[in-house]
Amino acid sequence: MTFVRPSFRHPQQPTNALGYVRKDYEGLISTLCAGCGHDSISNAIIQACFEIPVEPHKVVKMSGIGCSSKTPAYFLDRSHGFNSVHGRMPSIATGANMANRDLIYLGVSGDGDTASIGMGQFIHALRRDLNLTYVVMNNGCYGLTKGQDSATADRGSRTKKGAPNPFESIDLCEMAIQLGAGFVARGFSGDKQQLVPLLKAALLHRGIALIDVISPCVTFNNSSGSTKSYQYVRDHIEATGTFDFIPLQQEIVVQYEEGATQAVTMHDGSIIQLHKNVGGVDVTSRRRALDLLEAEREQGRLLTGILFLDPESEDTHAILNTTLTPLNQLTQAELCPGAAALEQINARFR
Amino acid sequence: MKPTKIEHPEYFHRVIDCQYACPAHTQVPEYIRLITAGRYDDAYMINWISNVFPGILGRICDRPCEPACRRGRVEKEPVAICRLKRVAADFKESIKARLPVPPKTKNGRRIALIGGGPASLTVARDLLPLGYQVDLFDDQSAAGGFVRTQVPSFRLPQEVLDEEVNYILDMGVNCHFNHYVGSLKEMLGRGYDAIFIGTGAPRGRDLPELPGRKEGDRFIHVGIYWLAAVLYRHIDRIGKRVLVIGGGNTAMDCCRTARRLGGDKVKVVVRSPRAEMKASPWEIEDALHEDIPIHDKLSPLEFVIKDGRLAGMLFERVEGQVDDQGRRRLTATGEAPVFLPCDEVLLAIGQQNAFPWIEKDIGIEFGRNGLPVLHEITHQSTLPQVFFGGDAAFGPRNVITAVAQGHQAAISIHLFCEGRDLRQRPHPRVNLTGQKMGFHDWIYDSHVTDDERQLVPTVEKVRSLKDRLLEVELGFDADRGHRESRRCLNCDVQTIFIDRTCIECDACADICPVTCINFIVGGDEDDLRSRLQIPADNREQALYVSPPLPTGRVMVKDENVCLHCGLCAERCPTASWEMSKFTYHEAQAEDV
C-alpha cells in the first residue's frame, strides 16, 4: 500500500489569481476506502478553494466524528482546523466564528454526525444562520462501524447484507429550508461539474450554507437495493438546473435566453446564473422550494442543485449586531470599558 | 476519437519513451529495475541482447533515450540511463557462460563483413548462433572500427572495448585484419551468400581551398586521422596553442586529446551559434571543464603562415539569418576579420562516405549524395546479395544506430539466405505481466523518489590532463547507481483501464498526482486534448481513450507525464485499473 503520494505534479499546472497552485490546497493522502465518495468531495473542495480563489490560511476546517469528519485531513493542510466531539461541530464552529468573524468557516459532517447525534446542534446552527458552509457527506449509513442504516437512509433502502430500512428518513435540505437557512443545495459526489460551483457559491454566501452531498459508501452501501449507490443516484437524479457562479470581480461573458435563466446577486455582488430545468422554479421562494422537493420525492426522484437561496440573508453577527472588528482583535480597554460604561448600560434597563 | 487499441504492440511501446527512442529498443526500465535489485549480470544481459556493447555504450552513447525520458518532463533532469548501463557493465561478474554458443554444425552459408565496426560486429553476433560462417575484413589491426580509432581512451578504455569486441570475435568470426578490401568485384567472386558492408564514413572533411592550407600542411591535421594516429602512437605531442575547427563530438574529442598532448591553450572555433552546435551538451560541458573555450559564429578565412610556420588563422564573423524559404543561413556581419594565433590546427568539420573500392559496373547504384541506394528497412542494395549498415548506409550517425541497423541487416541476410521475402519482417515479441501481488501491493517498486540526478565522479583534472589513457569518468559506485536507478518511473508498467467494471466514482482522477486521468464527454482528438483538466499539449504523447461509459462519458488519459505510480489502481474500488508490465522485445535474426 502506498502511503505517500508522489510529490510531482503536472508541469503545466495552472496558477490561480493569488499565485497558488492546486497542490497548495491539498492535504494528506486519504485513508478512506478506495472509491469512497468522500474523497471526491474532498477534491471538489480543493478545486473550489483553488478556483475562487481563497487564501488557504484564511480557512477554518471544522468537523465532528466519522468517515466524513476525517476528510479535513485530506484537503487544505495549510488551513486552520478543529476536529471536535461527535455531533458537536456546530457549537465549536459557533465559538470560533464569534471570536473571529474574518475567516471562512467550512464545516464537514456526515449523516450520523448531523442527523443523529448532532441533530440538536445542527438545527440551532441553522436557526442562528451562522456564517458557515456546512457540508454533509451523506452516505445513508454508518460506514465507520460497518454500515448500519443512518437517519438519512430512505425507507426500504438496503445496505450490503442488510434488511430494508423500516424508518422514515430525514431530509436535511427540507429541514434547513424550514429553519431559515439562506442557502440550501444538494449535490452528488459523482458530479463535480455541479458540486464545485455549488461549493464556490456556498463558501462566499453570508450566513449558513448547507450542502447535502450524496456520497456513496462503496464498501457498505453501494449495493443494488440501496438508494444511495452510484447506480441508483445516477438513475434518479434530477437537477433544479445547471448554473454558473460568477465572482464579483469577474465579467459576465455568457448570456442566456431570458426566462430560462434566473440571475441571483449575492451580498458581495457575485452573481449566480441558474439555467432552469425543472418547471421554471424560483429558487428564492422558500415555499416553492419545499413544494418542489416534495413533488420530486413523490416521483421517486432526487432533486439536486441549488434548492433555495435567499440573497438577503444575514448571519449571526448581523443578527446580534456585534462589532465589525473580530473579538479576538479587541484590546482589554475595548472589552472592559470600565465602571462608567457599565453604569450607562445599566441605566438603559431602569 | 475512437477507443485506443492497446492490443497494438506499438501503443504501449510508445509509452516507454526511453525504449521507443533507443534505435535498438533496449528494454531500459527492465534493466534499471535489475540494477536496483543488484542483479547486474541480468541487467547487463538485457542490454547485451539489444545493444551488443553495454560497457562501450554506457560511456560513449549519444543517449537518444535521455532527452526522451519521462522523468525529464516532470522533474529537472532525466534518469542517467547511459551511466546506469555502465553500472551494469562495471559491476557484473562473469557473463561468458550466458553468451550464445554457435552450433558446431554450420548451416553451410558464408557471409563476408567488410569493415569491423559496431554494425558488422552486430551482424556477426546475430548470425553466428544461427550457424553461419562469418568472415570479417578490416584494414586496421583490430576490430572496433571508429569506436577504436576515434574515441579517445580517456573516454573509453581499451580493455572495455576489447572485452566486448572479443565476446563476438570469440564466437568464431574468421578475422582478416590489416586487410584492405580494394575491390568489391573480387569479393563477389569469392562466392559468399551475402556481403555486408559496414565501412563507416572514413573520410574526414578538409578545407583544401583555404589560403595557406598547403603551406601550413605540417601544422594542419584532419581530426579523425589525427585521433587515429594518436591511438597508434604515431603522434604523441602537439603545439602549445591549438585551434580545433568544428562543433561536433569529434571536435570535442580532438580538443580534449590536444589538452593531454601538451596543448596549453586549446580553443574550439565553430561557425554556428553555440546553441546549435552538434556536439552533445555533456561533451561540450566536459570540454569547458578542461579550460577549453568555445568561440562561436566564426567562419575560417585563411591559414596565416609566417616564416614557413603556421602563425594563426583568420576568421570572418557570421550570424544566423533565416532566408525566404525559412532555412537558417550564416551570413557575414561585415566586421573586420578576427585573428586567432595558434601553432597547430585540427579540422573536425565532418565526415564523408567514400566507396572508391566499389566498382561502378557491378550493379550497386549510388544516389546523388554519394550513398548507396538502399531499401530503408531491409538495408538491401540494388545488388541483392549486398547489404549496408552503420555510417556506410545512410551517412554518419552514431554507434547505437549502427547497432540497430546491424540487427536489421542480419534479419535481411537471414531471410535472403532462406529465400524468403525480405519485407515480411518478424514481429516483436511482446508480453503483459500483471503486477498485482496483494492488496495494494505491487511486484514493482511503485514509490516515486524525489532524488535528483546523481553526478558522476571524475578523476582530478590535474591528473587526467597528464595521461590520455586515464579514464576521466569514474562511473557511479554501487550506492549512487542504486539511488539513480530508483529515479526510473517504470514507464513499462502500464495502466490498463477496464471500462466494463468502472463505476465512474472519480477516485482515480482525484488521486492522480499529475492530473492525467479525465472523465469527459467524447470528441475528436483536438477537442479532447483541449478539454482535459490540464490540456494535453504534448502531441508526441498519446491519449488513451476508453469506449463510452454508462454516463455517456469516456475515460481519457494523457500519457504524457504519468508517473506509473499505480495510485489509480490502488484507489479503484472495482479493480478497473490494472498495472501490467509490458515487455517489448525487438525482433532479431533468431526470431525469423
UniProtKB/TrEMBL annotation, chain A:
Q: Which residues form the Thiamine pyrophosphate enzyme TPP-binding domain?
A: 65-213
Which Pfam families would you find in this protein's record?
TPP_enzyme_C (PF02775)
State the organism of origin. Answer: Desulfoprunum benzoelyticum
Q: What is its EC number?
A: 1.2.7.11, 1.2.7.3
Picking any one GO molecular function of the record gives: 2-oxoglutarate synthase activity
Q: Share an example GO biological-process annotation for this protein.
A: cellular respiration
* Oxidoreductase among keywords: yes
According to UniProt, the name of this protein is 2-oxoglutarate ferredoxin oxidoreductase subunit beta
Report the InterPro entries cross-referenced here. Answer: 2-oxoacid:Fd_oxidoreductase (IPR051457), THDP-binding (IPR029061), TPP_enzyme_TPP-bd (IPR011766)
Q: Which UniProt keywords apply?
A: Oxidoreductase
The broad enzyme category this protein falls into is oxidoreductase
**Top-level taxon of origin:** Bacteria
Automatic annotation (TrEMBL), chain B:
Query: Under which name does UniProt file this protein?
Result: NADPH-dependent glutamate synthase beta subunit-like oxidoreductase/ferredoxin
Supply the Pfam families for this chain.
Fer4_20, Fer4_7, Pyr_redox_2
Q: What range(s) does the 4Fe-4S ferredoxin-type domain occupy? A: 494-522, 552-582
> Does this entry carry the keyword Transferase?
no
Give one GO molecular function term.
Answer: metal ion binding
Gene3D superfamilies per UniProt: 3.30.70.20, Alpha-helical ferredoxin, FAD/NAD(P)-binding domain
Q: Which domain of life is it from?
A: Bacteria
- Report keywords, A-Z: Iron, Iron-sulfur, Metal-binding
Q: Has keyword Nucleotide-binding? A: no
